[in-house]
Amino acid sequence: MSSLARALLDELGPGDLAELAQRLAPYLGAPKAPEDRWLDSKAAAEHLGISLHALHRLTSARTIPFSQDRPGGRCYFRRSDLDAWRG
Fold first, then answer.
1. 38-39 and 67-68: which strand pairing?
2. Chain segment 26-56, per-residue pLDDT in tens
């Protein structure tokens, strides 16, 4: 970005920025929703911001939605289910 453009943006107030955003909106397109996909335990814990140990306790108590490929097997979590559970 040129120094002239940066200086111009620095001079804009909140009302000016709101008008600029409104004028640019047709060119930016709608924001895309995150893809709903299956997560393994590590990714699910990261998504929720908790430790893997805490996630294992939640699955053991069956208080969080998850699926398994077989009894005692790996746990998988759908992102949308985790977001709904987190509420």
1. unpaired
2. 888 877 767 889 999 999 999 999 999 999 9
Percent of the chain with pLDDT over 70: 98
Domain ranges (residues) in the chain? 1-31, 38-86
Percent helix, percent strand, percent coil in the chain, to nearest 5: 55, 10, 35
Residue position matching structure tokens 């746990």: 75
Output Rg (C-alpha) for the chain, integer angstroms: 22
Distance CA 20, CA 14 (A): 10
Q: Which amino acid is at 33?
A: A
Report the predicted TM-score, pTM, of the whole model to 2 decimal places. Answer: 0.60
The H or E element spanning position 85 is helix 79-86
